[in-house]
Design goal:
Blueprint (H helix, E strand, L loop, with lengths): L2 E6 L4 E7 L2 E6 L3 E5 L3 E5 L4 E7 L4 E6 L3 E5 L5 E6 L8 E3 L5 E5 L2 E5 L5 E5 L6 E4 L5 E14 L7 E14 L5 E6 L3 E8 L2 E9 L9 E3 L5 E4 L5 E5 L12 E3 L7 E6 L5 E6 L4 E5 L5 E5 L6 E6 L5 E6 L3 E6 L3
Antiparallel strand pairs: 1-30, 2-3, 3-4, 4-5, 6-7, 7-8, 8-9, 10-11, 11-12, 12-13, 14-15, 15-16, 16-17, 17-18, 18-19, 20-21, 21-22, 22-23, 24-25, 25-26, 26-27, 28-29, 29-30
Keywords: Repeat, WD repeat
InterPro entries: Quinoprotein_ADH-like_sf, WD40/YVTN_repeat-like_dom_sf, WD40_rpt
Protein name: WD40 repeat domain-containing protein
Length: about 325
């Protein structure tokens, strides 16, 4: 059994990440907790709504109830990147070349490295944003689909339509597919063909609950998802992705929902967090399971691997957090 170093944080913890080898935890009350030679706390000054990692420079990006978008360095230093008075910022995304994006109502705003901004208006509220792996391009999730925008050129936007509420969006690591999470407890995908979209859609349905966590395998062959009593893992290795193929179901537990999934950074091993606080690791090749943590307080709300894959941090809705040493 791997060793677990526990960390108790007051209230709901919405995310955990590694900045270098330092595990960090973001509490919805507005504090960032870093385990760096002891626990160090940075107070944001307002409630946090989202906290994501910018892998390009090993920092955090946060959006909060005070309308600020902040960059937080691994020493706790805060830099304000945007401020929208009297608005809540709950969508933030890191991009290439020092760019970041955030949502404000029906607008997706991209802030470039030099501080200049570009705004992209949608007909409906922006629910999520993701940057393409190559080129300065964003996917914007909204009601009834996704819009693709080129940030640095005047190319026409591409509309990917599918009826329903799209609440999250992700590009595949090779940029060939766009996948959304939906309010209707399903995933939907599009195969991208140059600057247009392939006419065939990818419908990934059958989830008993909404999908709130997605994770791509290191080379993009698999997309793992929460929202069922097992991690549902879709195959994306072939040119048509999961069309006509059944997913893997890993870590099945009767009537106990998976709430978080996170692929190991180097191997096809998936960490799975459950609604009862339990965490499993499962190997794709043979489905072999390893218990990483027994059930605890609160549903798992965040999972993050260190760059080496030897440490796994976890967050929970009850503040019952910690770091698991896989190599122990």
């Amino acid at each position: 059994m791997p060793t677990v170093a526990p960390l108790d944080i007051e209230g709901h913890v919405l995310a955990t990440h590694f900045l270098g080898e330092t595990p960090v935890f973001a509490a919805s009350g507005g504090t960032i907790h870093r385990l760096d030679g002891g626990e160090k706390v940075t107070d944001i000054g307002a409630g946090l709504l989202t906290c994501v990692k910018d892998p390009a420079n090993q920092t955090l990006l946060t959006g909060g109830e005070d309308g600020r978008v902040l960059r937080i360095a691994n020493d706790g230093t805060l830099t304000e990147l945007a401020h929208v008075p009297r608005k809540w910022i709950n969508v933030v995304a890191p991009g290439p070349q020092g760019a970041i994006a955030y949502a404000q109502g029906k607008s997706a705003i991209v802030r470039l490295a030099d501080g200049s901004t570009k705004e992209f208006h949608e007909e409906r509220t922006v629910e999520a944003i993701d940057f393409a792996p190559k080129g300065l391009r964003i996917a914007v999730a909204r009601y009834n689909g996704v819009t693709l925008h080129w940030v640095a050129t005047s190319g026409a936007p591409v509309d990917l339509e599918w009826k329903g509420a799209h609440t999250g969006v992700t590009f595949s690591p090779d940029g060939r597919f766009v996948v959304t999470t939906m309010q209707e407890s399903a995933l939907h995908g599009w195969k991208l063909d140059g600057k247009s979209a392939d006419a065939r859609h990818m419908r990934m349905t059958g989830y008993p609950a909404k999908v709130k966590s997605l994770s791509w395998s290191p080379k993009g062959k698999w997309l793992a998802s929460s929202g069922a009593p097992a991690a549902i893992v879709w195959p994306f290795a072939s040119k048509d992705g999961p069309m006509g193929k059944a997913p893997l179901e890993l870590g099945t537990r009767a009537n106990i929902l998976v709430t978080q999934v996170a692929f190991h950074p180097l191997e096809e091993v998936l960490a799975i967090g459950f609604i009862d606080g339990m965490i499993l690791a499962v190997r794709i090749a043979d489905g072999k399971e390893a218990l990483l943590r027994r059930p605890g307080k609160g549903a798992i709300t965040g999972l993050a691997w260190s760059a080496t894959g030897k440490l796994l941090s976890f967050a929970s809705e009850a503040g019952d957090c910690g770091v698991i040493d896989i190599s122990a």
